[in-house]
Amino acid sequence: MKLRRTAAAAIAVLALTASATACGGKEGTAGDKPAGTGKSAKLPKYTVAKDVKLDSPTLKKAQKRGKIVIGSKADQPFLGFEDQATQERSGFDVEIAKMLAADLGFSADQIEWETVDSGVRETAISKGKVDFYVGTYTINDERKKQVGFAGPYYKAGADLLVRKDDTSIKGKESVKGKKVCSIVGSTPLQEIKKPEYGAKITELAKYSDCVKQLVDQQVDAVTTDDAILKGFAAQNPKKLKVVGKPFTDEPYGVGLNKDDKVLREAFTKALEKHIKDGTYKKIYDGTLGLSGSEYAAPPALERY
Ligand code: GLU
Prior knowledge:
By secondary structure, this protein is an alpha/beta fold. It has helices at residues 2-22, 57-65, 92-103, 121-126, 141-144, 187-192, 207-215, 226-235, 261-276, 279-286; strands spanning 68-72, 75-76, 80-82, 89-90, 111-115, 132-133, 147-156, 158-163, 179-183, 200-204, 221-225, 240-242, 250-257.
């Protein structure tokens, strides 16, 4: 079974390379099948640290339980994706989370994944439902009142996903009167709701539901981070495209308990180390890089 999956993955990566080349390599596509599984690419192996001693209440709790609980998304191809058949998680955020967990002394099989959608992240983190969270989570001052952030480890920007044959939406200036879907509790939803855009808003809990409405012609566009939208476009390149004009800054952070400064510093150091030693770039190339998001060096880490 395992072997067969590996073979299928190898075929998938071949198909992927072929189609990316066929399109001139600009918009790497993943064919028509749901992709987003980092399985097809070479990903780094993370060294699991031993005897980690930190004065972090979160870590101590996790060490006692012998598992670390990580919050993530499950429906964002190439970022945070769960294969419904195998329950396997893949994507850029999933790999970043595994890398950080290994530095805390937890191997992949000591991770308990918790799917946490955008609207309930602050509650899940502050109530201790998850030990930390990695899921396209924009760092901002409003959220910092409730949670802590390590990062940023990536910079995205809000963009628009439209149907391939739509030539009427060319950027944020052309959404007036259009039906635009976005996600409860997300920053791009707050942005698109501003009266200056004049859009008719549909608010849903999951990105995949917005994308379904777009394909079914119930809405005209989906707005959120370009990195997320490119993943959906790569999954369904015959029907969907990203407009390609980002209009906000969305720096991604690792969410954690607001008062656990020791853990925050440990994550910041780990990110710094793995950006330097090339692990970060390898993760990127094996996940997000496959969906057509071009590599850019991560923004400077913030210490506060
Ligand atoms: N990065 C944005 C946010 O944190 C949008 C993506 C998301 O909902 O996770 O709100």
